[in-house]
Every structure is written in C-alpha cells, then in structure tokens.
Amino acid sequence: MALFDIKLPETIRARLGLPQNDFKRQQERVLRKLLHKARFTEFGQQYRFDEIGLQENCVKLFQQKVPLFNYNKIYDAWWHRSLQGYPDVCWPGRIKYYALSSGTSEAASKYIPITNDLLKGNRVVMIRQILSLRNYNDIPVRSIGKGWLMLGGSTALQKGGGYYAGDLSGITAKKVPFWFQPFYKPGKKIARQRNWNRKLREIVKKAPEWDIGFIVGVPAWIQMCMEMIIEEYNLKTIHDIWPNLAFYVHGGVSFQPYKKSFEKLLAKPLTYIETYLASEGFFAYQDRPNSKGMRLVTNEHIFHEFIPFDDKNFDANGDPVENPQVLTVAEVEEHKDYVLVISTSAGAWRYIVGDTIRFTDKQRCEIVITGRTKHYLSLVGEHLSVENMNKAIELASSDMNISIPEFAVVGEPYQNLFAHHWYVACDDAVNAETLRFKIDDYLKQLNDDYATERGHALKEVFLDVLPEKTFIQFMRSLGKIGGQHKFPRVLKGKMLEDWKTFLANEMIPAKR
C-alpha cells in the first residue's frame, strides 16, 4: 500500500495546494483568518479583532494594538482562565488538551493550549511534507508505504479539571487520523505506556513483527531504541531487522552531534528530513534534498513575526527590551538571527517562543534553528550561540574520530573574570586536553567576538569528559526521560544547580 495512493478526505485534499512564493500575502491571509475566528473571544474583544481584521493595514494595526507575550505573561493574563474551564478566552470554545512543556531551561511545566484547529493545521503540514518526498531523487519507493515508528510521549494523558495534559507527541498520536493508522507504530497500546523504559522494552519485543520505513523522534532516544534492538537480537545493524528503513525525520535539536554514533547502527545511508515541530505548532519542514534550511509554514494556521536577536532588542539574560523592533516575513534579511514570535489557531497571540532562527533563503522562505534566547552564552560579550557550539563539537569530534552525542556548557566566575566549563559525553578513548584545545580553537574561528574575549575577560576554558549514561541518568533523575525531552546545551539557574548536585552525589569520574 503506497502512502501517496491514500484517498484523503476532500476537506484535506482541498487544502494541500502547493505553496506559492507570495509569503507576505499568505501571511496576511492567515492573520485575517485567525482574527476572524477569534473575534468573539475575550481576547479578541479586548483588542478589537473585528475592527483590525477589516482594515487594509491589518498587520500593522495588529502589531500596534496587541502587545508581545512570553509564557508567564499570557498565562497569568489569559490562559489560566482557559485552564480553569472558561470557554472563549483566547480561542473559541473550551480548551480540552494542553501540551506539557518545560523546554530545556525551566523547571516548572508550561501548559500550552492545543485545539482541534491547531492539530488540523499540523496534520495538513505533515501531509505536505510527506508529499514533498517526490522532490527527492532516487528515494527508495518501496519504503514509503512501510511503517512509521514514532517515538514520543505517552497517549495516556493526565486528567485535569475538564482537560487532559501531556506531551504534544502523545496528544498527536492519540488523535492519529484513520487513514494513517495502518502505518503508525508502535500502535495505540504501546503508545499509552507511561513508563519510558517499559515502552522501549515493548518496542524491542515487537520490532521483528514490523516492517519500518520511517523513524521519527529526538535523536538521543531513537539511537537508544535502535541500540536496544540490535543488542537484544544480536544484530550487526538495525537494517538486519528493518531492511526497508530509509528515512529519519528528526527535529528539536541539532542532529549533527549524534550523526557519527547514529550511523554506526546502520548498514546503508538514510535520508534525513528535518522538521520544526514545537508544542505551539508545526512551524517548518525540509521539503527538498540537500537544502540548508526548512520551509517556513506561511499559508496554513500560524502568523509569524521576527525580533532581531541583538543587543538593541534583548538584554544579557535573553529577555526582550520594552518595545523591541518586530518584523514581518517580508521585512527580514538573510543570515541574521531572529527570535520567533507566533500567533496561532490555539490562542497564542504574539507569543515569543524563545527559539532563534535564521533565514538561509528568503526567496524560498527557508530557515534554520540557531538556538534559544536563554541558551546563548554572553558573559562578557562573546555572543556564543548553540549553533557555534554544535559546529565546534562536530569539527573537533571529526578531527579526533570520536562520537560526542551530548554536551552542555556553563559560564562561571574565574579569578575575578570568567570561564566556560564544558561537560562532554564520550564513550570513546579521548584525550580531554586535546579536545578542549580543539573546541576552543574552532570557536575562535567561528566567532570573532569569542576570539576577542578569549584574550580578555574570558580567561579560561575547562572541559570534563563524562560517560554518555551520565547525561541520561541526570535526565531520568529529573523525570525528563522520554521522546520529548532534550538535554540543554547551556546550563543556568535551577538546572545548573541540579546538575552540580547530581554530579556531586553520583561522584562521577571525569577526564579533564
């Protein structure tokens, strides 16, 4: 059964026209649709959506009249009422589902509203991405109609006062459309499993019964799953049990640090397809081979804005200044970092996601994720991004022929000045001092500000090499084990305190 041959409902088929390149007009149309749908909500009434949506310059009026929100601000002012069961607060009707998200920096869970309108939009984007496989030359056609192993959160959601909460992947899997169910693995029974280790064991047990063509999930957990299957059945590679495995759909973190150890588990290359799917919505997807970026979704259910990520618009803590500059998709420039702001069909209005992105091809509206506002290190003006860190790790590990699947960096005081402290996961034999020197040297080449400050206030770089299991055990100690959770690349605040306490209690031996 070929996936491309599925007969989709007419309502979905009508919405699957190929994206056109008038992104400005598409986004204006999306905004008008959102304003019209939400005009009778409490939020829409306060900010006069009915009037804004009728004006020719509705985008500018929307930006002038509606303030920017971070999570705490919009939750305290609006979303808490939805959580208490009030209807028509920021989006029509009652909110029945919430995605629990703590990101990689905050300890407390966030309740992100999930509506049927948002899920429908996400599904349309997913179908577009599937159809874009036709853009790939020499794709293994026989793999397209095979099973999709989607490794995510449990579909057994927590019940609240009139709502359900859990991982977005669990909510999405719970509402898998009927036409996709024949392809979906691990199936509803295993997907309900709350215990992550038990879920993995059940997947391993079922693995020989499945013919998998696609795997979907966060790299660290997908890799762990494949390693368990290979060990259980005494295989050389995962292709010994799934010969038709040809595609890996990933997102959430950079895949590059995992690639070397990941590919040791394969007998033949996979086609890697990157996605940008967050709790707040499906923002972008890779729709052509060898592209440097992902196509931003501009014509469906999300209106995007962009704040330049620079010292004029953000303070040293990564928080926006009052009245920052905010641009539309028509006003951005290539090769500059922006913080993403979204308005969605779930009642997130001018919501600052916290991710930083960069346009690699404005004509195609293609972007890459460069990091998070809270995950930059700029103690003394070094402006070190997660993108810089990932690249330095990639280059250093390639030079030394080692695998570094996880790492984290801490900024700390040192001799009245400052230092960076790296914690690196590596199970290969490695000279920690050589690795430290290479990472530091590559960062100087990648980032002029870093190179300057290494001669001044950023006096030292420390590096500890730890077993990969240390990072997994730490996440398990926080209850953050599973398909949605990623190890933070920059440790600050409560997460840093927990990390130091964990290392001290575990007395982890490190190579330095």
Fill in the keyword field for this structure.
512 residues; alpha/beta; GMP Synthetase, Chain A, domain 3; 4-stranded mixed beta sheet; 18 strands; globular; GH3 auxin-responsive promoter; GH3; GH3_M; GH3_C; acid-amino acid ligase activity
Summarize the structure.
The protein is an alpha/beta fold and 512 residues long. Helix content is 34%, strand content 21%.
Tell me what portion of residues adopts beta-strand conformation: 15-25%
Total helices: the number is 18
Q: Low-confidence spans: pLDDT under 50, at least 5 residues?
A: 1-14
- Biggest pleated-sheet summary: 11 strands, mixed
Shape: globular
Helix content: 25-40%
Coarse structural class: alpha/beta
Protein name: GH3 auxin-responsive promoter
Domain GH3 middle: 297-362
Pfam families: GH3, GH3_C, GH3_M
Domain GH3 C-terminal: 388-492
